[in-house]
Amino acid sequence: MFWLIRQIVKSYSTWDRPTQIALLAAVGLFIPTVIVALIAPDGVRPFAWFGAGMLLLTAQIAVMWGSRGMVGVTTLAQRAYLAGDLARARMLLEQLRTSGSADFRALTLLGNVYRQEARLDESLTVLYEAIDKVSDHPFPFVGIGRTLLSMGEYIPAAVAFEQALAFEAPDSVWVDLAEGYFRLDRADDARAALDKSVSALSEVHMALMAAYLRYRLGVGNRPPKDLIETGMIFWRAAAVRFAHTSYGVALADDIRVLDELIQET
């Protein structure tokens, strides 16, 4: 509830003037109307409560209307991102950021787009902007962790993943954390993180990474051939994208190991 109120306050200045006035009027009249409903004679109270309900509904409509543009653009950018159209997603999100209307979700998505384009410094800058807007949500920390991981900055990446998990990030982030520990040669910590990850991961490439780490750490069998073949598409692309970092070099080595496992089956 408090997080939602903070978001409304932060986005209020970007709304059109009539919507701002509507929200202020509804909120300003709501409390006096509730007081009247509590102290008025019995015959008046139903009308006062009805009025309070209508004012609350008006405030909700004002918030939804005032946020319509931001939500719409972010949704369109999300769809473009999932469809692999990074250029369109970036264009939409950069326009939102330039206008000052980007909330932490839009900034987190933009940071993720920049990472997929190997613009790692820009990715970090935007993701930290998201943290400045909302400091207790896991998604920006996940993005920061993955960008730092891609840069080969494994220690701060692990810290970011730990922070994300402290804010109840999805269980799959345990795999990210395990990978960070694995890159740091902290085998025991990596195994402990994998123990906390879910066994069934919805993203194929994350399922492959989890299986691969368990295999390399001696706590699991070699990944099945079909999982390697489908999951490797993502990691091959990542190795090329980040070939200029130590992480890209490490991924290339992992791919060679996985290729050898395929040949052995």
Q: Which CATH class of the largest domain applies here?
A: Mainly Alpha
> Helical region count?
14
Strands, count: 0
Q: Assign an overall shape.
A: elongated
Structural class: mainly alpha
Query: Proportion of β residues?
Result: under 5%
Question: How do the helices and strands line up, and which of them pair or pack?
Answer:
Blueprint: H1 2-12, H2 17-39, H3 45-66, H4 68-82, H5 86-98, H6 104-116, H7 120-133, H8 138-150, H9 154-166, H10 173-183, H11 187-196, H12 204-216, H13 225-241, H14 246-264
Helix pairs in contact: 2-3, 4-5, 4-6, 5-6, 6-7, 6-8, 7-8, 8-9, 9-10, 10-11, 10-12, 12-13, 13-14
Short description:
The termini are far apart.
General description of the model:
Helix 9 (154-166) runs antiparallel to helix 10 (173-183), helix 12 (204-216) packs across helix 13 (225-241) and helix 13 runs antiparallel to helix 14 (246-264). The protein is built from 14 helices and no strands. The longest helix is centred in the N-terminal third of the chain and has 23 residues, at 17-39. It is mostly helical and 265 residues long. The model has no long low-confidence stretch (mean pLDDT 89).
